[in-house]
Design a protein that fits this description.
The structure holds two protein chains of two kinds. Chain A is α/β, with parallel strands linked by helices. Chain A has eight helices and nine strands. Chain A has two domains: about 190 residues, P-loop containing nucleotide triphosphate hydrolases (Rossmann fold); about 70 residues, no CATH class. The longest helix of chain A is centred in the C-terminal third of the chain and has 19 residues. Chain A starts with 7 loop residues before the first strand and ends with a helix. Chain B is an all-alpha fold. Chain B has two domains: about 80 residues, no CATH class; about 200 residues, MetI-like (MetI-like fold, Orthogonal Bundle), CATH 1.10.3720.10. In chain B, about 75% of the residues lie in helices and about 0% in strands. In chain B, α7 crosses α8. The model of chain B has no long low-confidence stretch (mean pLDDT about 90). The chains are: A alpha/beta, B mainly alpha. At the A-B interface, β5 and α3 of A face α9 and α10 of B.
Chain lengths: ~260, ~300
Amino acid sequence: MTTQGTTTVIEAKALDLTFQTNDGPIHALKDVNLTVDKGEFVSFIGPSGCGKTTFLRCVAALEAPTGGTLTVNGMTPDEARRNRAYGYVFQAAGLYPWRTIAKNIKLPLEIMGYSAAEQDERVRNVLELVDLEGFGGKFPWQLSGGMQQRASIARALAFDADILLMDEPFGALDEIVRDHLNEQLLALWARTEKTIGFVTHSIPEAVYLSTKIVVMSPRPGRITDVIDSPLPKERPLDIRDSQEFIEVAHRVREGLRAGHADE
Amino acid sequence: MSNGAFKAFWAVLTVLAIIVAFWYAACIPMNIKGVLTEQERAGAVVQPPSAKDRRDLSEFGLVLTNSFAIPATWDQDRPRLPAPHQVAVEMWETTVQKKITSKRSLVYHAWVTLSATMLGFAIGTGLGIVLAVGIVHSRVMDLSVMPWAIVSQTIPIIALAPMIIVVLYSVGIQGIIPKAVISAYLSFFPVVVGMVKGLRSPDAMQLDLLRTYNASRAQGFWKLRLPASLPYLFTSLKIGIAASLVGAIVGELPTGAVAGLGARLLAGSYYGQTVQIWSALFAAALLAASLVGLLGLVERKVLKRMGVAQ
């Protein structure tokens, strides 16, 4: 590992994925080429069916590509999964209702065989990271939707994977909560220096969060544009009114429109 | 008592009163012919006076022409349909006023049936859970066991019970075991069905999450599938324990058993002791209700402790 930004974490070359369904084959990913460096915050944006979630699932070895190559930390995705290289945050928090928040965060730690003392220590750390100190003893139903999603992020952070994969984690939340969580996520990213892959269909969210924005389009799922964001790493919420922000958002919108025009 | 609870209390009481009233009313036509025969023998004047003539008349007509006999329809020794208070008196006399060790004590007979029920329920539940775990984890078992489990429940237990008893007797097994086997036969099925559904209840996302942790199958079972299945299991257990009781009673019928609620039913029907039959039926119903209620209590405690129930 060398200095930040020079080590390749995720590399896809001519990646292809075709699902065989009863209605015939579906070309979910076609000729996807992408390099993600360590410490980057990469957003995948596009309409439904563009393959953004499928690509993230390929990285997590939850789907198997049918062509091309994909490496994660220099390994195959499945090796990376076995090495617990990433934490995955799903659209729904998916907390176990029979476990308290602290016990939910301990779930991956128990599975990975951390000692009880280590588990307590890590739960305390990640609860602080997602601003949920004091909620460890609560059950999921006692928390709001935004808090539950923060708990699920804490669960993904608990075992210190270098990569955080997030599949529309804030998609089900209202805009005010979402703004707040976006701000927190940036702070968390700055503190932990993780590489983040983030699927969204919100243009402002993608532009606000990312160092790199991958614009995708459907049928077949493919990349239409990769934008390296010129925004500084330090981003207050009102950066969204700046000229640079509006320009990047415009380019994303153009990319999405171009994808649709092909049809 | 809150207003809602008060209303519910009166509603329940009203329904109960209607049932009891209907029951008393039903006793009149059901028992009138027998009562008139008794009255005639005792020297009363009944209309029509000949038992032969009365045989072809409708019960309702006889009630109208012999309304003096109505109170007696609730007070026969061996009525076709005993009145509620007769059943209540019989139950009181055979529970509170008899020593528990007495062969005439309903508590004694209930205990004999209950012990077979509990043993059968334990076997059935254990078997049901083991089968469910196998079915969820093995496609071969899913395809081979599940159809047989379903077929097993389509055979009337009353036809199968004597076979089970005969077969077990021929290998030297008798007493509580054959009854427990029949009881288990009825109770394992709801447990299998409920448990399979419960173990399969975690959605694709939950399973994906465990995959991202590289969790083993065993970890997935203990940490996700099993806890997720518990609410389903409890629902099944409540059905299963009621079925267990039915199984134990049915198991007592073909053996000519001397003890147990089933034996009580059988003896009652041999000697035309309808009051005894009805009190045994009520004892069985009360027993089933208490067992289901007890399980409901355990369910609430366990689920609350787990944080599932709020």
